User: What shape does this take?
Amino acid sequence: MTTTPVNTMNLDALIAELVGLEIITDPTQVAKLSQDYYNFSPVLQPQLAGKKGDLVVRAAGEAEVLRVAAACVKFRVPLTVRGAGTGNYGQCVPLNGGVILDLSSMQAIRWVKPGLACVEPGVKLANLDKKTREIGWEIRMAPSTYRTATIGGFIAGGSGGIGSITYGQLRDRGNLLAVRVVTMEDEPRVIELRGDEVQKVNHAYGVNGIITELEIPLGPAYPWAEWVVSFPDFMTAARFGQTLADSDGIIKKLISIHAWPVPTYFAALRSCIPEGSHCALLMVAESCLESLADLVKEYGGTVCQQKTAQEASHGMPLGEFSWNHTTLHARSVDPSLTYLQTLFPDDKNLKLVEHIYHHFADELMMHLEFFRVGGVARPAALQLVRYTTEARLNEIIAYHEAQGAFIFNPHTYILEDGGMKTINVEQLKFKEMVDPYGLLNPGKMRAWLER
Assistant: This one.
């Protein structure tokens, strides 16, 4: 069955059903809570402009989530889950109106023990880190929106980030241990998924279950020093990044490489990076700095800013210039810019990186993030694109793919089209079981639309 248009009668009945819960109907607030950062994409802007829910329910706990789910099923009203709304692909933008279920108030940290934490989905990553560091542990990876993003939103809409150079991606076995999920059946229930079963809802945009609790692994908390290193040549910077990524004895959290003129968009770093230089933004354990200094020297780099972990704990963290925040900083200066997300082949010589860098010249500004894929350190690029037309953007994507690069397309809100480009049968089967009326974030899952 498909969703029916949301009518006033259904909404009034639904609101009456949810008396006692925090319900937001103010049009300005509802519109605000229906958005994310899809405006990074000039392709998504016209497709998602004006899309918004009819009302927002801010749940305070799992019992309230169950009430909302039951009411939406009863009146066949679509439901879209959101956390902090820091995604970039319209993951939490409702295509069919209905209820926006805001889980940002569910901030309980159930327990923390060595290597493990159990939390509600609205817990902010930075707050969780602060708590786990009290016993010497930290979250394994985080997006560049670390200070505002929620753990539920990161699991449902993210894929990796700062820390992925050590721990890989969220989809890798062991990076999510268990979840509790509320269903959208005639009588909603809570299902616990553990081990490999978590992949049924991991990075699924909330299309097949409402996550109400998560059990996640932690990593040892190191004092992370922050260095900015400049290089006169981009490929030297890139190869330095690859060598550092492959240096297993150096404990690191971030290797972010930026071709000139990308550093010009970093207002807080502009004074320390020499004109025309390419740079590496690094987070490395303080115990490894002597080895890092030797590697920088080997590649002819210049350390132009360095902070101890204590110094780095004040002000804007270096990670906020990396991953998708690089695009955010650039667009704050030039809103016409957009970006791509590219995985390059496993090649220590970075031949395709070099080819793409020279082939597109000023049209693409190279930005690399090193992370682990299948146990191997590889570069992903979040290139800044001087956007002209959608047709030209598609030509650029096609050229990358023809050369052997894999594009994670940030210009689509369809789950499968943006990521692995394949139908996830397990996620589809789970949706068919727990959301038989297709009410959860409708329109985002190709497998459901084409089944």
Q: What stands out?
A: The mean pLDDT is 96.
